[in-house]
Structure formats: C-alpha cells, structure tokens
Amino acid sequence: MTQDATSFGDSTLRGYLDELAAKVPAPGGGAVAALHAAQGAALVAMVARYTTRAKDADNRPVIDRIIAAADAARERSLALADADAAAFTGVGNAYKLPKETETEQAARAEAITAALLQAARVPAAVVAEADEIVSLATELLPIGNPNVVTDIGAAADCARSAAGSSQLNIAINVASLDGTAGAEFAPVLKQIEEVIARADALHNDVVAAITR
C-alpha cells in the first residue's frame, strides 16, 4: 500500500499499482488475490443492484440478500489485503530474529512457524471469500439483469484468480513449515480445486447465455 495510506482501501489505484511494481516486500501476490476477491464481490453487488427493476419484484428478497452478502464479502476481502501485507511483514521480521544462542534459535524457530502459519491462513481466508463469491454469482445468474450478465462471468473470473493465487501463497508458506504444521491447510487446497472448477463452469454458463 502507498506510504501515505493506512490501508488498501485508502490507497489510490495508481498508488497501489506503483507500490505493487516497486522493489518492496509487500504488497505482492497475496494482496492481489484478496483484491481479486474484492472486485468479484463488487461485480456481484453491481449486477444485483441492476436487478431491482419493477419486473424483478418477485426476486427482490433474494436480490437484497445477495447485495448484502456481496458487500460484506467485499469489505472482508479488502481487509484481507491489509492482513496479507501484515502477515508477510511478520514472516520477514521472524527470520530477522537473533539466533546466536540455543534459546534464541528456539524462539526464532517458534516465531517463524507462527508467522508462516499466519501467512498461510490469510490466503486460506481469501479462498473462503472466493467460494462465497462464486456461490452468490451462481445464484444470481438465472435471475440477474441480462443486460449485465457478462459481469457475473467477470465476477467468477475474479474469484477464480483469487483462489488460484491463494493456492500459490498457501503452498509456499506450507512448504517452509516443519513437520505436520501445515496439515490444517489440506482441506483448503481441496476447496481451491472446487472453487476453480465451479468458477470455470459459471464462466461457461455465462458465455452460453450470451451466445445462444
């Protein structure tokens, strides 16, 4: 995030991209994954808000629920971008701890494990948001305003990217963990495969809807 911003939500787009392109530890792929999820949630909310016409009255309770859920997912995803940057910084700080004595080495090893676990748990949370976004987008497709149906497909693509990028960030952190510390992420890695498959299917459904 930019130096004069307290979070990604306070950064300008250009400032964020400048920081992303810079030779600095964070932001990186983890923050990008979270922001993919935030964009996907925003797209779902936008399509839902375009589905509040008089002819959509029968579906209004569902639409209102989708709007609320998508807005909440967007805020959570945006917060996860900040959390990812903080977690990455925490890993770097842990590796910088002194290791001259056995006591220092033990404390450093414990701090590194804790930091790596946190750095993997943040993208795991992003995967949960991506899963939610695909579910909302899938529910919205048959009742959403057909004039903006392509944005449902774009939301699915954002969620897919969020899940795929999170997979990489989980894997690199788990690979650095000792023993069975990374076992908790096995269900998440399976969930990622499912999210990607569902997002691809939804993308194809949108293509079919606009080409038939």
UniProtKB/TrEMBL annotation:
Residues 12-178 form the Cyclodeaminase/cyclohydrolase domain. Pfam families: FTCD_C (PF04961). One of its GO terms (molecular function) is catalytic activity. Transmembrane segments: none annotated. This is Formimidoyltetrahydrofolate cyclodeaminase. It comes from Nocardia terrae.
